[in-house]
Design brief:
Elements lengths: L3 H15 L6 E4 L6 H6 L4 E7 L2 E6 L3 E6 L5 E6 L10 E6 L3 E6 L3 E6 L23 H7 L3 H4 L3 H4 L11 H11 L12 H20 L7 H9 L4 H4 L19 E5 L2 E5 L8
Antiparallel strand pairs: 1-6, 2-3, 3-4, 4-8, 5-7, 6-7, 9-10
The structure holds zinc ion.
Length: 274
Protein backbone atom coordinates (compact mmCIF):
# COMPACT_ATOMS: atom_id res chain seq x y z
CA UNK A 1 0.00 0.00 0.00
CA UNK A 2 1.52 3.33 -0.96
CA UNK A 3 1.85 5.93 1.80
CA UNK A 4 1.76 9.73 1.72
CA UNK A 5 5.24 10.35 0.27
CA UNK A 6 4.81 7.73 -2.49
CA UNK A 7 1.34 9.01 -3.37
CA UNK A 8 2.61 12.59 -3.58
CA UNK A 9 5.45 11.44 -5.86
CA UNK A 10 2.95 9.74 -8.18
CA UNK A 11 0.93 12.98 -8.25
CA UNK A 12 4.10 14.97 -9.05
CA UNK A 13 4.74 12.69 -11.99
CA UNK A 14 1.21 13.21 -13.33
CA UNK A 15 1.48 16.94 -12.80
CA UNK A 16 4.76 17.09 -14.67
CA UNK A 17 3.23 15.20 -17.61
CA UNK A 18 -0.06 17.02 -18.14
CA UNK A 19 -0.31 20.25 -16.06
CA UNK A 20 0.26 23.83 -17.23
CA UNK A 21 -0.75 23.20 -20.82
CA UNK A 22 -4.14 23.00 -22.55
CA UNK A 23 -5.76 19.58 -22.62
CA UNK A 24 -6.34 18.12 -26.08
CA UNK A 25 -9.08 15.83 -24.78
CA UNK A 26 -10.58 14.72 -21.48
CA UNK A 27 -12.29 11.34 -21.37
CA UNK A 28 -14.71 9.82 -18.85
CA UNK A 29 -15.96 6.23 -19.09
CA UNK A 30 -18.95 6.83 -16.82
CA UNK A 31 -22.02 8.18 -18.62
CA UNK A 32 -23.01 10.62 -15.88
CA UNK A 33 -19.57 12.28 -16.08
CA UNK A 34 -19.37 12.51 -19.87
CA UNK A 35 -21.11 15.92 -20.08
CA UNK A 36 -18.08 17.35 -18.22
CA UNK A 37 -15.60 16.19 -20.85
CA UNK A 38 -16.34 19.13 -23.14
CA UNK A 39 -16.07 21.58 -20.21
CA UNK A 40 -12.56 20.32 -19.40
CA UNK A 41 -11.21 19.90 -22.92
CA UNK A 42 -9.04 22.85 -23.98
CA UNK A 43 -8.69 23.91 -20.33
CA UNK A 44 -5.48 23.65 -18.29
CA UNK A 45 -4.74 21.47 -15.27
CA UNK A 46 -3.29 23.83 -12.64
CA UNK A 47 -2.26 21.25 -10.02
CA UNK A 48 -3.01 17.88 -8.48
CA UNK A 49 -3.82 17.84 -4.78
CA UNK A 50 -3.49 14.65 -2.73
CA UNK A 51 -5.65 13.77 0.27
CA UNK A 52 -4.42 10.47 1.63
CA UNK A 53 -5.17 8.08 -1.20
CA UNK A 54 -7.51 10.48 -2.98
CA UNK A 55 -6.32 12.70 -5.78
CA UNK A 56 -7.97 15.92 -6.94
CA UNK A 57 -7.08 17.21 -10.39
CA UNK A 58 -7.72 20.97 -10.50
CA UNK A 59 -8.57 22.73 -13.77
CA UNK A 60 -8.29 26.47 -14.45
CA UNK A 61 -12.07 26.90 -14.71
CA UNK A 62 -12.84 25.96 -11.10
CA UNK A 63 -13.74 22.35 -11.90
CA UNK A 64 -11.86 19.46 -10.28
CA UNK A 65 -11.90 15.73 -10.74
CA UNK A 66 -11.85 13.72 -7.53
CA UNK A 67 -10.54 10.16 -7.84
CA UNK A 68 -9.78 7.49 -5.29
CA UNK A 69 -7.90 4.42 -6.43
CA UNK A 70 -9.32 2.09 -3.75
CA UNK A 71 -7.68 -1.31 -4.30
CA UNK A 72 -7.54 -1.57 -8.06
CA UNK A 73 -7.18 1.89 -9.53
CA UNK A 74 -3.96 2.63 -11.34
CA UNK A 75 -2.62 5.79 -12.97
CA UNK A 76 -0.30 5.60 -15.96
CA UNK A 77 1.62 8.31 -17.77
CA UNK A 78 2.21 7.58 -21.47
CA UNK A 79 3.14 9.37 -24.65
CA UNK A 80 -0.04 10.99 -26.01
CA UNK A 81 -2.63 8.35 -27.00
CA UNK A 82 -0.11 5.56 -26.62
CA UNK A 83 -2.40 3.20 -24.73
CA UNK A 84 -0.83 0.26 -22.92
CA UNK A 85 -1.78 -3.29 -23.72
CA UNK A 86 -3.94 -4.10 -20.70
CA UNK A 87 -7.18 -5.81 -19.72
CA UNK A 88 -7.92 -2.98 -17.34
CA UNK A 89 -10.74 -0.58 -18.13
CA UNK A 90 -9.89 3.02 -18.82
CA UNK A 91 -12.06 5.20 -16.59
CA UNK A 92 -10.64 8.72 -16.87
CA UNK A 93 -8.00 10.20 -19.17
CA UNK A 94 -6.39 13.58 -19.72
CA UNK A 95 -4.62 13.92 -23.05
CA UNK A 96 -2.31 16.76 -23.96
CA UNK A 97 -0.33 17.15 -27.18
CA UNK A 98 2.63 15.28 -25.69
CA UNK A 99 1.40 13.06 -22.87
CA UNK A 100 -1.62 11.17 -21.65
CA UNK A 101 -2.51 10.57 -18.01
CA UNK A 102 -4.65 7.46 -17.84
CA UNK A 103 -6.62 6.21 -14.86
CA UNK A 104 -7.53 2.53 -15.08
CA UNK A 105 -9.95 0.43 -13.02
CA UNK A 106 -10.87 3.12 -10.47
CA UNK A 107 -14.61 3.32 -9.80
CA UNK A 108 -14.59 6.27 -7.45
CA UNK A 109 -14.48 9.31 -9.76
CA UNK A 110 -16.44 12.55 -9.36
CA UNK A 111 -16.44 16.03 -10.80
CA UNK A 112 -16.61 18.82 -8.20
CA UNK A 113 -16.15 22.55 -8.00
CA UNK A 114 -13.05 23.67 -6.10
CA UNK A 115 -15.01 25.03 -3.13
CA UNK A 116 -16.76 21.67 -2.66
CA UNK A 117 -13.49 19.75 -2.23
CA UNK A 118 -13.05 20.29 1.56
CA UNK A 119 -16.66 19.12 2.08
CA UNK A 120 -16.28 15.90 0.14
CA UNK A 121 -17.34 13.04 2.50
CA UNK A 122 -13.96 11.28 2.26
CA UNK A 123 -11.81 14.40 2.45
CA UNK A 124 -13.66 16.07 5.30
CA UNK A 125 -12.98 13.12 7.60
CA UNK A 126 -9.20 13.27 7.15
CA UNK A 127 -6.85 14.62 9.81
CA UNK A 128 -3.96 17.02 9.06
CA UNK A 129 -1.86 15.94 6.09
CA UNK A 130 1.70 15.14 7.15
CA UNK A 131 3.06 16.43 3.84
CA UNK A 132 1.12 19.69 3.89
CA UNK A 133 3.67 22.50 4.43
CA UNK A 134 0.94 24.55 6.18
CA UNK A 135 0.66 22.02 9.00
CA UNK A 136 2.87 22.94 11.97
CA UNK A 137 4.42 20.94 14.81
CA UNK A 138 2.45 23.09 17.28
CA UNK A 139 -0.76 21.99 15.58
CA UNK A 140 0.20 18.30 15.82
CA UNK A 141 1.23 18.77 19.47
CA UNK A 142 -2.27 20.10 20.28
CA UNK A 143 -4.00 17.59 18.00
CA UNK A 144 -2.46 14.47 19.61
CA UNK A 145 -3.82 15.65 22.98
CA UNK A 146 -7.40 15.94 21.71
CA UNK A 147 -9.94 13.84 23.58
CA UNK A 148 -10.67 11.71 20.51
CA UNK A 149 -7.06 10.49 20.35
CA UNK A 150 -5.57 10.85 23.82
CA UNK A 151 -6.43 7.41 25.14
CA UNK A 152 -5.83 5.34 22.02
CA UNK A 153 -2.68 3.32 21.44
CA UNK A 154 -0.25 4.83 18.98
CA UNK A 155 -0.25 1.62 16.90
CA UNK A 156 -3.94 2.01 16.03
CA UNK A 157 -3.98 5.80 16.14
CA UNK A 158 -1.27 6.18 13.52
CA UNK A 159 -3.15 4.12 10.93
CA UNK A 160 -6.32 6.19 11.43
CA UNK A 161 -6.39 8.72 8.56
CA UNK A 162 -8.71 10.85 10.68
CA UNK A 163 -5.78 11.38 13.05
CA UNK A 164 -2.98 12.05 10.55
CA UNK A 165 -3.52 11.73 6.84
CA UNK A 166 -0.80 10.00 4.81
CA UNK A 167 0.74 7.74 7.47
CA UNK A 168 0.87 4.03 6.60
CA UNK A 169 2.72 1.03 7.89
CA UNK A 170 6.37 1.98 7.45
CA UNK A 171 5.90 5.59 8.56
CA UNK A 172 4.08 4.40 11.70
CA UNK A 173 7.09 2.39 12.93
CA UNK A 174 9.62 5.03 11.90
CA UNK A 175 7.80 7.99 13.50
CA UNK A 176 7.45 6.11 16.79
CA UNK A 177 11.12 5.10 16.81
CA UNK A 178 12.31 8.67 16.25
CA UNK A 179 9.89 9.85 18.97
CA UNK A 180 11.20 7.22 21.42
CA UNK A 181 7.65 6.00 22.00
CA UNK A 182 6.78 2.32 22.52
CA UNK A 183 4.08 1.38 19.97
CA UNK A 184 1.55 0.20 22.58
CA UNK A 185 1.67 3.45 24.55
CA UNK A 186 -1.05 6.08 24.32
CA UNK A 187 -0.59 9.84 24.13
CA UNK A 188 -1.85 10.06 27.73
CA UNK A 189 1.08 7.84 28.86
CA UNK A 190 3.62 10.31 27.44
CA UNK A 191 4.98 13.50 29.01
CA UNK A 192 4.93 16.81 27.14
CA UNK A 193 8.52 16.49 26.03
CA UNK A 194 7.80 13.10 24.45
CA UNK A 195 4.69 14.43 22.72
CA UNK A 196 6.71 17.37 21.39
CA UNK A 197 9.20 14.90 19.92
CA UNK A 198 6.31 13.01 18.39
CA UNK A 199 4.93 16.21 16.84
CA UNK A 200 8.34 16.92 15.27
CA UNK A 201 8.83 13.38 13.96
CA UNK A 202 5.28 13.09 12.59
CA UNK A 203 6.12 15.86 10.10
CA UNK A 204 9.89 15.50 9.69
CA UNK A 205 10.00 11.78 8.86
CA UNK A 206 7.37 11.79 6.07
CA UNK A 207 8.87 14.97 4.60
CA UNK A 208 12.35 13.49 4.62
CA UNK A 209 10.96 10.34 2.99
CA UNK A 210 9.33 12.45 0.27
CA UNK A 211 12.49 14.46 -0.46
CA UNK A 212 14.99 11.62 -0.06
CA UNK A 213 13.58 8.73 -2.04
CA UNK A 214 11.77 6.99 0.82
CA UNK A 215 14.66 7.03 3.30
CA UNK A 216 13.54 7.51 6.91
CA UNK A 217 16.83 6.48 8.54
CA UNK A 218 19.32 9.17 9.53
CA UNK A 219 20.63 10.41 6.17
CA UNK A 220 24.31 10.17 7.19
CA UNK A 221 23.91 6.62 8.47
CA UNK A 222 22.05 5.64 5.30
CA UNK A 223 24.69 7.24 3.08
CA UNK A 224 27.50 5.52 4.96
CA UNK A 225 25.86 2.08 4.76
CA UNK A 226 25.09 2.58 1.08
CA UNK A 227 28.74 3.38 0.34
CA UNK A 228 29.74 0.24 2.17
CA UNK A 229 27.60 -1.72 -0.27
CA UNK A 230 24.60 -2.47 1.98
CA UNK A 231 21.33 -3.10 0.11
CA UNK A 232 18.63 -0.42 0.22
CA UNK A 233 16.24 -2.51 2.33
CA UNK A 234 18.93 -2.57 5.05
CA UNK A 235 19.73 1.14 5.19
CA UNK A 236 16.38 2.68 4.21
CA UNK A 237 14.70 2.61 7.65
CA UNK A 238 15.61 2.86 11.33
CA UNK A 239 13.51 -0.16 12.35
CA UNK A 240 10.91 -1.09 9.72
CA UNK A 241 11.64 -4.51 8.20
CA UNK A 242 14.75 -4.94 10.37
CA UNK A 243 13.60 -7.48 13.00
CA UNK A 244 16.46 -9.32 14.68
CA UNK A 245 19.05 -6.81 13.45
CA UNK A 246 20.85 -4.26 15.64
CA UNK A 247 19.26 -0.87 16.30
CA UNK A 248 21.29 1.88 14.55
CA UNK A 249 21.18 3.96 17.73
CA UNK A 250 21.95 1.38 20.45
CA UNK A 251 22.60 -2.06 18.95
CA UNK A 252 19.61 -3.81 20.60
CA UNK A 253 17.91 -6.30 18.23
CA UNK A 254 14.80 -4.81 16.63
CA UNK A 255 11.50 -6.50 17.53
CA UNK A 256 8.62 -7.22 15.15
CA UNK A 257 4.99 -7.42 16.32
CA UNK A 258 1.56 -7.41 14.73
CA UNK A 259 -1.59 -5.50 15.43
CA UNK A 260 -4.77 -5.77 13.38
CA UNK A 261 -2.91 -8.03 10.95
CA UNK A 262 -0.28 -5.39 10.18
CA UNK A 263 3.33 -5.57 11.27
CA UNK A 264 5.23 -2.97 13.20
CA UNK A 265 8.81 -2.78 14.45
CA UNK A 266 10.48 -1.10 17.40
CA UNK A 267 13.62 -1.02 19.53
CA UNK A 268 12.87 -2.18 23.10
CA UNK A 269 15.72 -0.02 24.45
CA UNK A 270 15.08 3.26 22.58
CA UNK A 271 11.31 2.84 22.95
CA UNK A 272 10.79 1.54 26.52
CA UNK A 273 7.36 0.18 27.45
CA UNK A 274 7.08 1.77 30.91
ZN1 LIG B 1 17.76 1.31 20.08
Amino acid sequence: MPEGPEIRKAADKLEKAIAHQPTAEVFFAFKHLQPYAAKLTGRTVTHLATYGKALVTHFDNDFCVYSHNQLYGKWMVRQAYNFPNTNRQLRFAIHTDRKSALLYSASDIEVLTADAVPHHPFIQKLGPDILDPQVTREQIFEWVQEKAFYRRRFTTLLLDQGFLCGVGNYLRSEILFVSGIHPTRRPTDCDRERLARFADAALAIPQQSYHHNGITNDLDIAQDLKQRGWPRRQYRHWVFGRDGQGCYACGTPIVKERSGGRRYYYCPTCQPAD
